[in-house]
Design brief:
- 47% of the residues lie in helices and 15% in strands.
- By secondary structure, the chain is of the alpha/beta class.
- It folds into 3 domains: 10-139, no CATH class; 142-260, NAD(P)-binding Rossmann-like Domain (Rossmann fold), CATH 3.40.50; 275-619, 3-Layer(aba) Sandwich (Rossmann fold), CATH 3.40.50.720.
- The chain has a 9-stranded mixed sheet with strand order 10-9-8-11-12-13-18-22-21, sandwiched between helices.
- Helix 10 packs across helix 17 (484-497), helix 12 (347-357) packs parallel to helix 14 and helix 14 (378-398) packs across helix 19.
- It is elongated, with a radius of gyration of 34 Å.
- Mean pLDDT is 81; it is low at 1-5.
Amino acid sequence: MLFPKKNTPRWLIFIIDISICLFAIFLSYMLRFNFHIPPVDLKDLPTVVSIILSVRILSFSIGKTYAGIIRYTSSKDAQRIFIVISIGSLTLAAIDVCSYAYAAKIIIPTSIIIIDYIVTVFLLVSLRTLVKVLYYELKNPKRDKTKVIVYGAGEAGVITLRTLDKDAGTKYKVVAFIDDDRKKKGKKIEGVRIHHTDELDDLLKNSDISFIIISTVHIPTSKKQMVVEKCLSYNTRVLNVPPISSWINGQLSFKQIKKVKIEDLLERDEIVLDKEKTYAQLHNKIILVTGAAGSIGSEIVRQIIHFNPQKIILLDQAESAIYDLVNELKEFKQTSFEEVIADIRNNQRMENVFKHFKPQIVYHAAAYKHVPLMEMNPSEAVSTNVGGTKIVADLAVKYAVEKFVFVSTDKAVNPTSVMGASKRAAEIYIQSLGITTKTKFITTRFGNVLGSNGSVIPLFKKQIEKGGPITITHPEITRYFMTIPEACQLVLEAGCMGNGSEIFIFDMGKSVKIVDLAIKMIRLSGLTVGKDIEIVYTGLRPGEKLYEELLNNAENTLPTHNKHIMIAKVQPYNFENIKPEVLKLIELFETQDNIKIVKQLKSIVPEYISNNSIYESLDE
């Protein structure tokens, strides 16, 4: 094998470089004296060699010219050699000047310094370039290289090209740039032609492209989705260059270029929020976040931090998750945190939290949310989602909390499950309570969030990694999706605009067929549906809907200043009527009689009609 897999040791490169310098000295003398060195100059040659080599050894050690991998030599490596040799040769000239000033003698002929400088630079750079070319061509000829397109002909695109050339040039060849700027069309970057986005289809069709790397950071989400969809239709895999902020020491490495994730295809263009109002509400406030270790709760905490609250109380019963969150937040030294391990169903414990910390704003995200599990455990769903919410809400009133923001779910709309109905009962309780108090109770309602605990996407990823099959409950099932940061941003803004007792619903975009989601995830992994990964339908689970509802049409919502947030028109309840019914429901926990519990839940939430559940008999 001409070139070993292991990199050549640095000490060996150093020795080779010094040997080249020694050869350059002798060659310089031969060229200078037309291959006949006079005796007087020949006599001084050992002294000249020792001085020049000493300077080169010192300058190479300081400049670390030997540190680069020769077969991946780049323009930066050549630039480093040029600078180091130039400084070394100037040092030799300075030695001559000093020698002449003090001893009236020139040690190294000026012509030798000049010739040696030119020869040394030429030989060092040429050798590295030759090794790189030989390594590329002999190990992987052009015809065997994987063809790559870089999307974005800006600075990040050029860096991506050079990174591929340096880190993976033996395997990949960039054959084209794609850019939206028509002015760049037809131009070349380091020999690679720039094409307009309109030409992408033809390139994918005719050039056998294996990868496209999206290098531009500011590509609109809709454009990115279009590019990915087009690539998938040609079985071309899509990679992403991370934001510059995440580059290691400001430099991009090939290992940082990752596959496009399914989350990228479900994202929407960035939502612009009113940060001034959010800052005015959260700045210098004591804020309690329940369920702080969960997917939504932890992201709410991450976003609240940037508005400089006085203190954030991180409350959850999951000690390990809270520990991990606290470690993550240590860098935010300007904000005070208090981690509290507590169960929201424990009235005495929660009272102590409110009494001791006196929170001014509460974000209530703690809840049970898994539909099938809660369908089998109605008492727990009621105890936490209704009873726990009641305890936290009542204490918020008692201790004069300014605002209470309740994180609800789209499954509370015309619920078909115990989980959805329990969240709707909690909505009814705090909505009616808010009418009677100074504390402003605000409900936020949205659908599935990408990457949350229990989300379908992490499940599909695990199933793909195991080689399948992917399990889907029904071929027609659809869901709304939103990113966790996006959902939490809207929660913060809805909390700011709420005046009390509103239910805010979020624009979730278009619903997504879960089977389409699975197919895209399989294709993004470079696999084929039916060949590499099977899709198996398992049937709807207890309480599961085919389609989620958000009540987000003009007939049953009111607009707000933010087009992504609407107010639901829902039936108001009288607190004096609803309170005893909720108390009765919570007290039924002691009976552990699921039928009685669900029956009472249906009494409070009359629109709750069970689906694919043992409790359907209660609807007859």
